[in-house]
Amino acid sequence: MIVDVHTHTPTHRDAVPEAERRVYENWRTDRPVTTTNSWADHAAAVAGADVAIVFNIAVDDPEAMTGLPYPPERTNDATAEFVAADPRRRIGFLSVNPLRDNVFEEVERCVELGLAGVKLGPNYQNFDPLEERALAFYAHCERHGLPILFHQGASPMRHAPLRYTYPLVTDEVALRFPELRIVMAHMGHPWGTETVVTIRKHPHVYADVSSIYLRPWVCYQSLLAAVEWGCAGKLLLGSDFPIADTGEAMAGLRRVNDILEGTKLPRVPAEAVERIIHADALGALGLEVPS
Ligand SMILES: [Zn+2]
């Protein structure tokens, strides 16, 4: 089974009106990225996967903080509605700002809506991931078997503090909550080695490879580090739709050794790449296969 663990909820149910279309030049170096998209756009983009994990990020000003413009009050309902439209191929994650009041009520409401995990982007949401209330929130997720996917590493959004995305901060979280299932997004790019040493030591901490193939050297270094430290089996496939689609992500990973032509540098074994693509992500995160 192929699981794309990292896709963002489409911003629009139907075709995007021209006036609402948003395009960013600085997300990829090879082409602009359209961050507004329809349900059909998402379905087409993840056609290469059997199951996609889908989420929004709870922020007050989505355009300034994430570039993914959706009404903040619809953060979780938009995801739940989208998942309900094709529940055999989609798993939804909720998002809340752990520093807000009533977060536990919102989590309970979302779980009733069928959302099965949590997406947090402390940099986009502007909270210190080791703050007291954040820790209380992780404890709740650990107790209720809700995996958390953390944004890690770089972001082009100016107002998003990079210090909240450093992979070694996630080591601190995992030290406190050993049973919490964690996914470190983007292998913490460009801090792939820091991510690798973190997932290596914590049994329930994983990393997704979304977007990393867009920077071939970072991708090569990060995957090779995972192989050399014996934890490539903890890497999960992700596309980061709308940045890329699942097919592109798989093809990009399979090209990881292309930059080595003419060198004697060690190769990332093809089996390691296939293992990422076919990883048992749902088993790792304690999620049920959708039916
Ligand atoms: Zn993302």
Automatic annotation (TrEMBL):
Keyword Ion transport: no
Pfam families: Amidohydro_2 (PF04909)
InterPro entries: ACMSD (IPR032465), Amidohydro-rel (IPR006680), Metal_Hydrolase (IPR032466)
Keywords, comma-separated and alphabetical: Lyase
Domain of life assignment: Bacteria
Residue span(s) of domain Amidohydrolase-related: 72-260
Name listed for the protein in its UniProt record: Amidohydrolase family protein
Organism: Amycolatopsis samaneae
